[in-house]
Amino acid sequence: MSTLIIDTATDRTSVGIFKDGVAVFYAFHDGAMAHGEALPKIVAE
After folding, report:
1. What residues make up the domain containing 9?
2. C-alpha–C-alpha distance, residues 45 and 23, integer Å
3. Of 8, 14, 15, 23, whose Cβ has the fewest other Cβ atoms within 10 Å?
């Protein structure tokens, strides 16, 4: 099973994808209080 995790609780926007409990992707963007703007940048990387 794959799980997408998005954390916007602080000024760091974090995105992770886990497959069977193992991280296959993780990225973050610091200083982004505008999380909606940070998410596309993370995906583009």
Report:
1. 2-44
2. 17
3. 23
- Residue 39: what are its φ and ψ, rounded to 5°? -60, -50
Residue whose structure tokens are 């997408």: 4
Look up the pTM and report it: 0.76
26 forms beta bridges with 16
Contact of 17 with 24, CB cutoff 8 Å:
yes
Here the tokens at position 26 are 């993780």
Q: Which strands form 13-19's sheet, in the order they lie side by side?
A: 2-7, 13-19, 22-29
2-31: pLDDT as tens digits: 999 999 998 899 999 999 999 999 999 888
Tell me how many domains the chain contains.
1
